[in-house]
Amino acid sequence: MARKNLSMAMEFDQLTLKRLQSVVRTDLGFWGEVRTLLKESADHLESNLQKNVPIGKTRVLSSSIKQSIDQGRTPLWAKVTADAERTSANGKSFRYGWALQSSKGRFIYHYLSGRRSGAKTLGWFSRSRRGLAKKQKQLLERMATRMQRRWAA
């Protein structure tokens, strides 16, 4: 059985990128702006995850939240993951964050403390995407303004 990993990726539409690459292939300043946009989007998502993460005694899950950004010359993606593992009573390893994200059926997990104390952890990871589209729109507008100034000079 394949392991389920909690991951959210932000990618540009491939057709849009192909068009952009043909126009700005040599403009490294543009791709620097794209990298900044991806980094700021990933920072926003990581911040939301840290606000929603169920906190246990060891804080293993919150410390496992990490982001990565495409390191290619023309960056196409950024992703944020939470990949903490635990060992069950029968000795099997499982993705702890995924269990809390999709707690249904036999095991239903709840927040132990904090502002969500007693509430189900179901959807804690996917719920963190709220507000990301609005933030990305703001970031894109800021990037477009900077690029217009740069190209006008």
Description of the molecule:
With 153 residues, the protein is an alpha+beta fold. The protein has a domain of 106 residues. Helices cover 44% and strands 15% of the residues. The protein is built from five helices and five strands, in the order E-H-H-H-E-E-E-E-H-H. The strands form two sheets. A three-stranded antiparallel β-sheet has the order 1-3-2. A two-stranded antiparallel ribbon has the order 4-5. The longest helix has 25 residues. The radius of gyration is 19 Å and the shape is elongated.
Helix and strand topology:
Layout: E1 6-11, H1 14-24, H2 28-52, H3 60-63, E2 65-69, E3 77-82, E4 85-87, E5 93-95, H4 96-101, H5 132-152
Antiparallel strand pairs: 1-3, 2-3, 4-5
Total DSSP E strands: 5
Structural class: alpha+beta
* Whole-angstrom Rg: 19 Å
Shape: elongated
What do the pLDDT scores average to?
A: 80
Q: Note poorly predicted spans.
A: none
- The arrangement of helices and strands along the chain is EHHHEEEEHH
> How is the largest sheet built, in terms of strand order?
1-3-2
- Total helices: the number is 5
Query: How is the main sheet built?
Result: 3 strands, antiparallel
Q: Please report the distance between the alpha carbons of the first and last residues.
A: 56 Å
The helicity comes to 40-55%
- Beta content comes to 15-25%
Could you name the key traits of this structure?
153 residues, alpha+beta, 3-stranded antiparallel beta sheet, two-stranded antiparallel sheet, 15% strand, elongated
